[in-house]
Amino acid sequence: MIDKWAQVLVHYSTGVQPGDRVMITGGVAAEPLLRAIYREVLRVGGLPTIVPTFPEWHGDLLANGNDEQLAYISPIDRFGRAEADVLIRVLADTNGRLPAAVTPQRSAAYTAARRELGATMVGRAAAGDLRWNLTMFPTAAIAQDADMATSDLAALLERMCLLDQPDPVAAWRELHDRQQQLIGWLTPRSEMHILAPDTDLRMSFGGRTWNNSDGKRNFPSGEIFTGPIETSAEGHIRFSFPVVTGGREISDIRLVFRGGKVVGASAGKNEAALIAALDTDPGARFLGEIAFGTNYGLERFTKQILLDEKIGGTVHMAIGNGYPDTGSVNTSAVHWDMIADIRKGGRVTVDGDDFLVDGRYLLWEKGRPT
Q1: At residue 240, what are phi and psi to the nearest 5 degrees?
Q2: Could you tell me how many helices (H) and strands (E) the chain has, helices first?
Q3: pLDDT confidence of residue 315
Q4: What are residue 357's DSSP bridge partners?
Q5: Where are the domains of the chain?
């Protein structure tokens, strides 16, 4: 599977061409995949730079770094986001938790210092100057967080990445076409209403562009997303699944919106981290993304946002930075995805018409795709 995985990432997801400057980075636990990607880039004629990262390095920085060190951006990080033609990242955590002494404020300061670099990355991607992809390698730590055996996680990733198909690229193109049906239906419409237990939220997206996430930037993928009108969100929402970000798990998140802005926020666990993120900068209290998951290869929560936000029949949204190619003008150092599970007792209507009911996209005639 490793060689097939690398081939799809290099040829389909990022379209590496001869002479492309390609940065490949990820945890050392993903060495087999990192090296396979490196070899495939060489075969294509690209110019690869491979940067393995070590376990818990991020925790070391947050626990021991001074303010200058927290704000420092290495030339390697700058190259990958501001200069390279292609950036391929492989998540491979061996321990995703931070040292207990790290405060939410230090995590927020680290994030805020990278706002400009993040804006450069999304701006270059929107302009077509950077092709990037984020994938995940099945480590024991990720499997344990998901309450799975490592072999079961590997099999799940194989299914979600469509690598179990005879022709994975053809399968991704088929999913693209199915998702484009949803986008075609949504594009001329403008008002969304999300109803679920502890959730009654409205927002507008008229005139914005829906993106078809089909394995190009996330792998696995399977979602459609846009940037809502920044001042439009009204109501309240409870996110069914915890957010696991920056080494912390934040659960039972509830947000209240007025005029698009988060004016009330609470969490059952690690509420201080939620508030610190919302206070990072003015844009952190507005939505940068609203999205629908379409990948029915995953039906359970894994605590990995790269996977969970794709769960077929769920809704997720992100506070903070939006993607310019959707039309979003919200800017922030923060981009936190949070998932609302509306597969049981949930409904999304658009301009008054049912779009998603109990996890089923009504436009797809047979409900849940296979």
Answers
A1: -65, -35
A2: 12, 20
A3: 95
A4: 347, 360
A5: 2-137, 168-361
Asked whether 121 and 140 are in contact (CB, 8 A), the reply is no
Q: How many residues are there in the chain?
A: 370
DSSP string spanning 317-363? EEEEPPPGGGT-----S-EEEEEE--TTT-EEEETTEEEEETTEETT
Cβ atoms 26, 92 nearer than 8 A: yes
CATH for the 2-137 domain, from 3.30.43.10, 3.40.630.10, 1.10.238.10, 3.40.1830.10: 3.40.1830.10
Instruction: Tell me how far apart the alpha carbons of residues 259 and 236 are, in angstroms, rounded to a whole number.
Output: 12
Q: What is the pLDDT of residue 75?
A: 94
Q: Distance between CA 107 and CA 66 in Å, rounded? A: 12
Q: What does the pLDDT read at residue 56? A: 81
Instruction: Flag residues of the chain having pLDDT under 70.
Output: 96, 98, 100, 246, 365-370
